[in-house]
Amino acid sequence: MRKISILVLTLVVVSLLWYLFIKPQDYQVSFKAKALPGTIFETVKAWNKTLDSVVPVSFESLSDYTQTIVSGDSIHLYEWNITKIHDSLSQIDVNIKDRDYSLMNKIKIPFSDTDFEKGSRKTLLDFNRFLKEHLKEFNVSIVGEDELFSTYCACVSLTTEPVEKAGGIMANYSYLSSTIFENGVEPNGPPFLEVENWDLKANTLSYNFCFPIVRSEKLPLHPSITYKRIFGKPALKAVYHGNYVTSDRAWYALLNYAEENNIEVEKKPIEVFFNNPNMGGNEIEWKTEVYMPIKDSE
C-alpha cells in the first residue's frame, strides 16, 4: 500500500507540475467551420486587422500559425491548429495563452469560469461570425483538368501583400488599357494575373498583371511595361465569383483538389478577369477563371 501511495502521489505531483509549468496553453476553444484551411488562414489574417492588435499573424503552415492579440494590459497568444475533415469542413482548435499571467490563469481555471475564459470564447465567437459572413461573399466551383491559354501580352510587374493584389490590378488597369488603346495595339482577350512567387510566410505576392495583345512591330516602349508570351499547358481550372481581393480562395480550392487527386501542380496560379473592378457593381457577379498549372511529368 505504501508503494502504491507513493506512486499515486508521484503521478499527482508530476501531473500538477506539467499542468502549471509545461502545458503550452491556458485554455482551448474548439469548433468546426465550413471552409478549407487556406480560407480559414486568410480570414484569420483579415480579421486580425480589425482588432486592436497590430501584430501580423505568424505563419508556420496552413494548419499551424500564431496570432497575437492585445487585450487591455495583457497580451494573448492564439495558436491556431486546423485539421481538414473533408472538402467543405475543418476542425479548428485554438490554444490560448496569456503571455504574462499564464500561471495565474491555470490556477484559477479549474475552480471558476474566469474572465480570461469568457473573453476567449467571446473573441472566437466574433471570429466565427466574421468567417460566416465572409463565406457568403464568394463562391468557387472546380472545373477540373483543362488547358491554359496561349497568348502574347503586355504586363506590369508588381510585388504586394496578397490582400493588396486587387489594389495593384485597379491601379494599373486603366494605365495598361489606355496605353494599348492610344498606340493602336490590338487587344486579344480579357486581362489576367500571372503569379511568379507566392510566399505565405513572408506574406508577399509577386505577379504580372497583363493584357493579352496581338504581337506587332509597333508596340509602345514604356519603362514599366514588359512584353512576354504565355504558353499553353495542362492546368487545373476553377471559376471564382466575388471580389478580386479574395480570389485566392480559389487557389486553395485548386490545391486541395490537386492533393485529393494526386496531381502535382506549380503553385503559380493564373487568374483571368472578366470584370473591371474600377467599374464597381455586384461583386458576387464578378467572374474570374483561375488556373493552377500542372507540373510536367518529365
From TrEMBL:
InterPro entries: GyrI-like, Reg_factor_effector_dom_sf. It comes from Flagellimonas iocasae. Coiled coil: none annotated. Gene3D superfamilies: Regulatory factor, effector binding domain. SUPFAM superfamilies: Probable bacterial effector-binding domain. Pfam families: GyrI-like. The lineage of its organism: Bacteria, Pseudomonadati, Bacteroidota, Flavobacteriia, Flavobacteriales. Residues 158-295 form the GyrI-like small molecule binding domain. It comes from the Bacteria. This is GyrI-like domain-containing protein.
